[in-house]
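User: Predict the full complex structure for these chains.
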Amino acid sequence: MTSNAPPSGQTDYVTLVSCDGFEFKVQRSSAEIAEAIRRMLDPRTGFYEAIHNRCEFSDITGLVLEKVVEYLYYNEKNKDAKEVPDMEIPPEMTLEVLMAADFLNV
Amino acid sequence: MSGRRTGGRNIRGPHSALTDFLAANNISAAQIRADYNDRVRQAAQQNGTTNGDGTNAPEVQAEGEEVTAPAAAPAPEEPEEDEFPVVDTSRKRKRKSDGKAKEKAKKKAKKVKKGGSHDDSDFDIDRDMYKKAKKLPGQMENCEICEKRFTVTPYSKTGPDGGLLCSPCGREIAKDAKKEQKPKPNQGRKRRKAESDRLDHRVNRGTRSLVETCIDVVAKHHADVDGLGELPRSLLNKLSMIFSKKRVLNPKTLRMFLKSGLDGLELHDCANLEAEDYKLMFATIPLGESFVLKNAGQFKNETMDYMAQKSKKLQHLKLYAANLVSDKSWCNFFGLRGENLKSLQLEWMDDSFSDDTIKYMTETCPNLSRLKLKHCRKVTASSIPQIATLSNLQHLSLELTCDLPCERFIDLVSKIGANLSTLSLARFSGTDDEGLNGANDLFLEAIHNNCNKLQKLRLSYNDACSDAGFAFLFSEDWKNPPMLVVDLSSTRDIDNANPTGPEEAIGLASEGFKALMKHSGSKLRNLNISSCRHIPHKAFMDVFDPSSGAEYPELRNIDLSFCGAVDTVTVAGIFKTCPKLERLVAFGCFGVEGVVVPSGVLLIGAPKAQDEIVQVGMGGVSVDMALGGMLEKSQE
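Assistant: Here is the predicted structure of the two-chain assembly.
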């Protein structure tokens, strides 16, 4: 497995790219809360994303991806907290966030 | 002086019921009147008018009134005075108050007419005269706190000293007030919500998933959503569940869910939908293969006929409480669509769906693999042989209210039992003394002999099957592979004359329970043995004994409510032997106390739990730690 590991190796931060070109540098531990991203970045798969530590989402806009990233951090921060209030999501973008969340499996 | 006055003034008004009441409650009109006169006199003195020695009370009043009227605001005293039949109230005053009342009424009328506009500045002149008038909306005023000049609006807040506040200061004040008020009502609601979340299987730790959060937001703003776009079916189903739960699924919100490309629709509460809405649904989803329509009270004959015509691909139908569909319409539907129909699940049919319809159904729907009839009042035992002719049936769930002779079911099991992977017979219990109705040991034997593909078995609410019968059913030579879902709840005898129960166990008890866990323990996911009162403590200890190497790797949900023998040690054993346990329901298990719940597990209903009904596993508490904690507690 180590033989075909990328030269860059596993970084602490990964890059999430939205369809309109916004890039988000996110802690790996937070990003991997999303099941889909975790699979993309799994070094055993040898996916492009895993090698370059960079996930591009051609269906998710920067605005929505920002919200998703916000949630990922929110989730990690409150992992062991009790009675965490739901994160605020502006109603007008909820449906898009919902689609993205379903796709990313968070 | 005062004695003279009261003696001299024996004025009596008409003797009313109120006077009686006041007298009975020791409230003296004379006393009140005397107080009033005192006040009037004082006011008169302040104004420098000397008034003799006040022997002539009526005069005092009249005079005092005249003088005080412009100086002191009489408003608060008014009602008190009006209540008593004081004969000598001056005309002037009367007129004045009359005028005031008229003015007030006028003002009210004006307000109504103008929709609350406040531009009539000449009202309440008299009040304006005595104290500094409050500024009206639209006028300028200096803020009481920051002294800035601002325009008064109807929403301007009143400051601590009675003046008006500008909007930033008002906001601050409102915030403070809120902070003071909030905690009390909120805490109760918060706790209530937390409990309800837990009963919804929502482990209250960490954040909820983003999908759930979004769905809640969508449901909250359901009125503003025009369409749901291209959401996948799974999300649509989740959304429709939440919409049903919040009771916002109505003709308008239904439109969101209708898209021509769908292959089905799940609506869990159709109570607000009319016949027309169903038609629209079937017209927009012509390719629908499966429909779930619960509480479909307005699902009528015409709707049924429309569905039979339009939905040519229909395979799965779940229809609850559709009582307006006649037998004729059902037969028409089976005639047209029976050929393709694979599953039919009906609940709460009171007045239609009779035995004849079932007969027609078995003739026209040969491919039926799933049949569920629950609370269908017209279905009787004579339908059982008909159901037994459905050779492709794999899932059978019945909960009927009529007397069901056991021999017919034995016959049914011997005919189609070999195919069944689900057999669910709730309340399959006889009321006669001979035990010919309902499940008994012979029936269990028939299951043992015929079924070898069962994954789910339910035989709840039965008082005829014995422990030996269950032990035989689950004995080692049963060819059936381990089952996934077993529900043997409430298999016990209830007799008011004998509250401690019969001496010889009826229903699942020691041997049956052990045999069941031995047979299915390796695959079992859900186990419901609530109210199986005869399972002894020793059986629980043997089954859930970690030291003997027992392990139930798949067991997730256990309900052992009202099993009296369960105690803390048993629960500890369950925690240890079921690594994937998610939820343990233990209502009425009074032996369970001082439990430390490992993380990820919900323990619901332990009555002696110290703080809450539901105990959620604490973060990072492993099973061993939990057991250690429990030991310490029990030693204390």
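Residues 91-114 of chain B form the longest helix (24 residues).
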